[in-house]
Amino acid sequence: MNLKLSGLITATLLGAAALPAQAEICDVMIDESARVNRNASVDCTSRIGAGTRVAADASVTYYSNIGEDVVIRRGARLEMGQANQGADVGAYAYVGPHAILRDNARLGRSARMETDAYVGDRSRVGQSSVVGVNAFVNTDSVIAGFSVVGNEANVGSETNVRSLAIVNTDVRLGDNVLIGSGVEIGSHSVIAAQVSIGQYTELGYNVNVGYNTRIARDVVIGNQVTIGRDVIIRRGATIQDGMVIPAGTIIQAGVYY
Fold first, then answer.
1. Rounded to an integer, what distance in angstroms lies between the CA atom of residue 133 and that of residue 95?
2. With DSSP H G I counted as helix, E B as strand and the rest as coil, what are the percentages for the chain, rounded to 5?
3. In Å, what is the CA distance from 79 to each residue of 35, 43, 94?
4. What's the pTM value of the predicted model, to 2 decimals?
5. All domains of the chain in start order, with CATH
6. How far apart are CA 227 and CA 222, in angstroms?
7. How many CB atoms are closer than 10 A to CB 78?
């Protein structure tokens, strides 16, 4: 047991009438209305806001900052991380140094936010998904289960990344983008707003996709391809490296080079 509470600011310990004898008195800031399970670990450097609940086997350490009405579920771990008002940190999830889970955002079971990751207001990161180092997920977006948002990637508002998708390093996704299940987007690619990409499609590195383009499932797009706005790419198309697809083009199934 490593729960350490201030002599002036106490927390309700679930299932415990009083602090165990070995608890150390220090300057940890835990609001008196917070509820911390007796088997949770909260160190002296962290702050926990009003109405927050910390479940058994959870760990809040190294200057973590927890807002009001946050739920930290069993086995979750925050190391110098931040969870804002109404956030929900799933069982066995991880919030790394300087990572920020914003207001009413949700981090699923066993999901991870790496160093300096950011998940915006009301966004959701699904089970076992990873938001990489210095990656940014804007407001009202969904990263479904078992997906990866790579280091330095940026996901726009109201964007939906479905399960098993991989958004690689330094990819930029605009607002209102739909990324289907099993899609992989190569590093340094830019996907403009209002684009949809069907499931199991593959995009290489340095691909640029223009506004309002529709890419069907099972498409393969090579490296350093530029696709204009309002393009439609049908299922089964393959676009070779270096191609430039003009705005408004309709691409049928087949190989283009």
1. 11
2. 0, 35, 65
3. 19, 10, 8
4. 0.89
5. 1-134 (2.160.10.10), 160-257 (2.160.10.10)
6. 11
7. 30
Classify the C-alpha dihedral 145-136-116-55 as positive or negative. negative
Strand segments (E) across 40-153: 41-42, 47-48, 53-54, 59-61, 65-66, 71-72, 77-79, 82-83, 88-89, 94-95, 100-101, 106-107, 112-113, 118-119, 124-125, 130-131, 136-137, 142-143, 148-149
pLDDT in tens, 163-202: 999 999 999 999 999 999 999 999 999 999 999 999 999 9
Chain segment 22-54, per-residue pLDDT in tens: 334 455 589 999 999 999 999 888 999 999 999
DSSP state of 5: B
User: Tokens 């002296």 map to which residue?
Assistant: 44
Interatomic CA distance for residues 12 and 30, integer angstroms: 10
Burial class of 196 by CB neighbour count within 10 A (0 to 12, 13 to 18, 19+)? middle
